[in-house]
Amino acid sequence: MRAPFKPSETVDFVVIGSGAAGGSVAKELAVAGFSVVVLEQGPYYREKDFTHDEMKFNFNSPLMNDTKVQPQTFRRTEEETAKAQRSVGYGRQVGGGTVHFAANYWRFHELDFNERTIWGEIPGTGFADWPITYAELEPYYTKAEYDVGVSGLAGANPFEGPRSKPYPLPPMPVKSSGVLFERGAKKLGLHPFPAPVAVISKDFRGRVACVHCGFCARFGCEVGAKSSSLATVIPMALHTGLCEVRADAYVRKIETGANGRVTGAIYFDKNRKEIFQKARAAVVCANGAETPRLLLMSKSNRFPDGLANSSGLVGKYLMFDVGSTAQAVFEHPLNDYKSIEVTRLIHDYYAADPKRGFYGGAGIDARFNSNPLLFGLRGMPRDMPQWGAEFKQNLGEYFTRSMTSMSHATCLPLEGNSISLDPELKDAWGLPSMRVTFKLHPDDVKNQHFILARQREILEAAGAKKVWDNGVWDVSGSVHLMGTCRMGNDPVKSVTDKYNRAHDVPNLFIVDGSSFVTSGRQQPTGTIQALAYRAADFIAKSAKAGAV
Amino acid sequence: MATWPEILAAQEHARAAAQSAEPPAFGYLDKPAAADIEALASEIIPSGDTPGAREAGVVYFIDRALSTFDQGRQGLYRAGLEHADSQRKALFPASQSISGLTSAERVELLRSIERTEFFQLLRDHTICGFLSDPSYGGNRGGVGWQVIGFDNQHQHHPPFGYYDAEEKEGSR
Fold first, then answer.
1. ipTM surpassing 0.85, yes or no?
2. Assigned fold of A153-195+323-409+441-474
3. Which residue of B has its CA nearest to A370?
4. Does the predicted model carry a pTM greater than 0.80?
5. Contact between A333 and B110 using a beta-carbon 8 Å cutoff
6. How many whole angstroms separate alpha carbon A541 and alpha carbon B145?
7. Is A389 in Cβ contact with B46 (below 8 Å)?
8. What is the pLDDT of residues B34-70, one digit of tens each?
9. Cα atoms in the Cβ-side hemisphere of radius 13 Å centred on A296
10. Chain A residues 57-86 with a CB less than 8 Å from chain B
11. CA dist., res. B129 & res. A359, Å (int)
12. Which of A125, A138, A204, B170 has the fewest CB neighbours in a 10 Å radius?
């Protein structure tokens, strides 16, 4: 069987979603000789579609979900009635979130996988060990880094777990924000290191090196130097001749037969025509919000509470992108709007420390995350004029002389935080809207206050003229979507097993941010991709042995 | 904010205007309203040693926004300008129009409406018209970018700034 396929042909795998996970799974399965159809909700953009137009890409970006056609509702607790509100954001095109992400590509640490054992119980939470260790995942981190192209410096982060290979590419050139952050951090006895990023610092596997254009996060890369699934694993998958990527294919149900096995997926094509793609197995990689929504929509007589949901945990334990932000202005121009966002990091506060009096940890970065228009609108400190002659003058100073530090912090898994189906609201296709319920654990708040103070210290030690921040608040939205189909050994307490196979359905696999048991310290893409490579390896071996 | 197709339409509109030899015509605003908006925008980002909202053609950006991707905000502008004009009459009874006020008077007028939704929108639109891609009708010749020190190149080379240059120098 060669691509393209007919929906009536039973392909080996239907993969739902084409981002960090879906692209990698499709590539690995196609390379292993299986026929694969990838169904992607969003369109198929090419590099020529990506520009520096801030009006287009910074607001209601065509690279992200549009809540005008796919509205969402939000509430803090299960007792409240959710109100229509944009809450979660995700990449919605071939390549998913890897197209517009900032390309931060950290590995989780060894402790992320067994932190429940290290720290102990946290009452009222679903804090738990992962069913796998860092050592089990390590070969797949390496495989992902070498397939997509990650730039970094092995050994520079003293807190990282062991690596079997160095990064395939040297670190990106340090920006002034990185130099200043490094100076400040070293003064305080901390251990700054070059940020690992999924952007190629040199030509790599037929792709050209980054040209430092500065329109990186929120934008698609017009030269293909950002190591998105669009620029890397999707072309590799297509090259096999065994994989077909169908864009504008919005899956509404994973179909199962009388024996409880997946038989394929029903989707709307671009013209909203329903199509049933037959498949021997399905891999759901639709992200931590759309994956549980799809499973919950895939009800049947046999699975009345949604597919793979005998535990009742599909959609539960949602974890968000949590972190604090500090900014600083310096004497000389940094021109930090150039190149990628982040070039230096510290992981000194990564591990939780009982002495702090709460659970939590974070990585802290040095970056600049504005383009001219975004900076003009929101970049100036709130205690300074926001219009007028002084505003204009300050803007001229601050745009080139300021930098940002963001922290990426733990978000505890709480059963009450979830993705569910809204009982009232429907999207433009008539499907139930996703309802988001989310409230931070008190330790997540305390941790951010602690980390924000550390960020300020570093910026001050770096010699900033002024340091400012906008505090810590209870977030109501996120672009990192984790935890909603957690993996585990106990089918009562998890949705998938340690190889991402649904406990309830032998030929259904779930691989993306939804698989996470804990949040790590954010920056989930590298771990999503490592999990995808590992799951694909297991799926391919099982399928060859007739065990899928 | 607007959706992508609406924004594309606005750009087409702006490109057509830019290619025309005639001074750009307004698509939505009448001349007095355009003059008042320009007068207010020119206090949000004033001219001076460097170009401001006026030189950047911010009013053309706003006109295009209101005739294309921000059509839904025409009512807010209409009501906002009416309110601003009634404030003008109360503050400066001898004056004839917002565009006829002195700079200091316009600043005082803006302060009196600073907390309104209209002002916030006008402020954001003015900044958008100053710093967005010139294809939207504002930021003429990239003057807004020049004012804030943004070098609009499609590629850059390290060192990018003072401190990384200094570090590079030091490591030699």
1. yes
2. Cholesterol Oxidase; domain 2 (3.30.410)
3. B150
4. yes
5. no
6. 55
7. yes
8. 999 999 999 999 999 999 999 999 999 999 999 999 9
9. 24
10. 59-60, 62, 66, 68
11. 46
12. B170
